[in-house]
Amino acid sequence: MVARDGHGARGMNFAPDAARGLRHVFVRGLTVQARLGVHAHEEARAQRVVIGIDLAVRDESAPTGEGADELARVVDYGAVAATARRIACAGHVRLAETLAERIAVALLDDDRVARVRVQVEKPDVLPDVASVGVAVERSRN
Questions:
Q1: Where are the alpha helices (DSSP H) in the chain?
Q2: pLDDT digits (tens, 9 = 90+) for 41-60
Q3: Catalytic amino acids?
Protein backbone atom coordinates (compact mmCIF):
# COMPACT_ATOMS: atom_id res chain seq x y z
CA MET A 1 0.00 0.00 0.00
CA VAL A 2 1.40 3.39 -0.96
CA ALA A 3 0.39 6.36 1.15
CA ARG A 4 -0.35 9.76 -0.35
CA ASP A 5 3.03 11.01 0.84
CA GLY A 6 4.75 8.28 -1.20
CA HIS A 7 6.36 6.59 1.78
CA GLY A 8 4.15 3.51 1.70
CA ALA A 9 2.33 1.94 4.62
CA ARG A 10 5.55 1.39 6.58
CA GLY A 11 6.49 5.08 6.35
CA MET A 12 3.22 6.07 7.99
CA ASN A 13 4.60 5.12 11.41
CA PHE A 14 6.37 8.47 11.49
CA ALA A 15 3.12 10.38 11.84
CA PRO A 16 2.69 12.10 15.20
CA ASP A 17 0.87 9.84 17.65
CA ALA A 18 -0.35 11.48 20.86
CA ALA A 19 -1.61 8.21 22.33
CA ARG A 20 1.88 6.71 22.01
CA GLY A 21 3.60 9.94 23.07
CA LEU A 22 5.37 10.55 19.75
CA ARG A 23 5.96 13.62 17.63
CA HIS A 24 7.30 13.65 14.06
CA VAL A 25 10.47 15.65 13.39
CA PHE A 26 11.74 15.83 9.83
CA VAL A 27 14.40 17.34 7.58
CA ARG A 28 13.59 17.40 3.85
CA GLY A 29 15.86 18.01 0.91
CA LEU A 30 19.16 18.46 2.73
CA THR A 31 21.50 18.85 -0.25
CA VAL A 32 25.22 18.27 0.15
CA GLN A 33 28.22 17.66 -2.09
CA ALA A 34 29.49 14.23 -1.10
CA ARG A 35 31.78 11.56 -2.45
CA LEU A 36 29.36 8.64 -2.71
CA GLY A 37 29.46 5.66 -5.04
CA VAL A 38 31.32 2.63 -6.29
CA HIS A 39 32.83 4.17 -9.42
CA ALA A 40 36.28 5.80 -9.50
CA HIS A 41 34.87 9.17 -10.57
CA GLU A 42 32.46 9.09 -7.61
CA GLU A 43 35.34 8.55 -5.22
CA ALA A 44 37.43 11.32 -6.79
CA ARG A 45 34.75 13.98 -7.19
CA ALA A 46 31.84 15.03 -4.98
CA GLN A 47 28.34 14.91 -6.38
CA ARG A 48 24.96 16.24 -5.30
CA VAL A 49 23.34 14.04 -2.67
CA VAL A 50 19.90 14.78 -1.22
CA ILE A 51 19.05 13.51 2.26
CA GLY A 52 15.64 13.20 3.89
CA ILE A 53 15.17 12.34 7.55
CA ASP A 54 12.11 11.35 9.56
CA LEU A 55 12.27 10.89 13.31
CA ALA A 56 9.69 9.47 15.70
CA VAL A 57 10.52 11.40 18.86
CA ARG A 58 9.19 10.88 22.35
CA ASP A 59 6.86 13.71 23.32
CA GLU A 60 6.60 13.95 27.10
CA SER A 61 3.76 16.47 26.82
CA ALA A 62 1.50 14.10 24.88
CA PRO A 63 -1.31 13.31 24.78
CA THR A 64 -2.93 16.40 26.26
CA GLY A 65 -0.26 18.75 27.57
CA GLU A 66 1.90 21.56 26.30
CA GLY A 67 5.60 21.56 27.05
CA ALA A 68 7.83 24.49 27.91
CA ASP A 69 8.70 26.71 24.94
CA GLU A 70 12.39 25.81 25.22
CA LEU A 71 14.71 24.27 22.64
CA ALA A 72 16.33 22.02 25.24
CA ARG A 73 13.20 19.88 25.56
CA VAL A 74 12.96 18.94 21.87
CA VAL A 75 15.11 17.33 19.19
CA ASP A 76 16.59 20.25 17.28
CA TYR A 77 16.15 19.77 13.53
CA GLY A 78 19.14 22.06 12.97
CA ALA A 79 21.29 19.64 14.93
CA VAL A 80 19.76 16.72 13.01
CA ALA A 81 20.71 18.38 9.70
CA ALA A 82 24.20 19.19 10.98
CA THR A 83 24.77 15.55 12.00
CA ALA A 84 23.68 14.27 8.58
CA ARG A 85 25.78 16.90 6.79
CA ARG A 86 28.88 16.06 8.85
CA ILE A 87 28.56 12.32 8.17
CA ALA A 88 27.81 12.74 4.47
CA CYS A 89 30.79 15.04 3.93
CA ALA A 90 33.30 13.15 6.10
CA GLY A 91 34.85 11.18 3.25
CA HIS A 92 34.14 8.71 0.49
CA VAL A 93 31.41 6.13 1.10
CA ARG A 94 30.81 3.42 -1.48
CA LEU A 95 27.14 2.65 -0.80
CA ALA A 96 24.15 4.92 -0.29
CA GLU A 97 22.90 2.25 2.11
CA THR A 98 26.00 2.66 4.27
CA LEU A 99 25.63 6.43 4.35
CA ALA A 100 21.95 6.18 5.32
CA GLU A 101 22.75 3.64 8.04
CA ARG A 102 25.53 5.79 9.50
CA ILE A 103 23.21 8.78 9.72
CA ALA A 104 20.38 6.72 11.22
CA VAL A 105 22.57 5.15 13.89
CA ALA A 106 24.07 8.52 14.83
CA LEU A 107 20.62 10.06 15.26
CA LEU A 108 19.58 7.22 17.58
CA ASP A 109 22.25 8.48 20.01
CA ASP A 110 19.58 10.87 21.30
CA ASP A 111 17.51 8.82 23.77
CA ARG A 112 14.34 10.71 22.77
CA VAL A 113 14.50 9.30 19.23
CA ALA A 114 12.49 6.07 19.05
CA ARG A 115 12.77 5.50 15.28
CA VAL A 116 14.58 7.09 12.37
CA ARG A 117 14.11 6.82 8.63
CA VAL A 118 16.87 8.18 6.36
CA GLN A 119 16.56 8.55 2.61
CA VAL A 120 19.66 9.14 0.48
CA GLU A 121 19.17 10.20 -3.13
CA LYS A 122 21.60 10.73 -5.99
CA PRO A 123 19.69 12.95 -8.43
CA ASP A 124 22.37 13.30 -11.12
CA VAL A 125 23.30 9.65 -11.76
CA LEU A 126 21.00 8.56 -14.58
CA PRO A 127 20.14 11.11 -17.28
CA ASP A 128 16.54 9.96 -17.78
CA VAL A 129 15.70 9.45 -14.08
CA ALA A 130 14.84 12.16 -11.55
CA SER A 131 16.65 10.40 -8.71
CA VAL A 132 17.96 7.08 -7.44
CA GLY A 133 18.59 6.10 -3.87
CA VAL A 134 17.68 4.16 -0.81
CA ALA A 135 15.74 4.52 2.42
CA VAL A 136 16.60 2.76 5.67
CA GLU A 137 14.86 2.63 9.01
CA ARG A 138 16.40 1.97 12.38
CA SER A 139 14.74 1.87 15.79
CA ARG A 140 15.56 1.75 19.45
CA ASN A 141 14.74 -1.59 21.08
A1: 8-11, 40-44, 77-88, 96-107
A2: 999 999 999 999 999 999 99
A3: 122
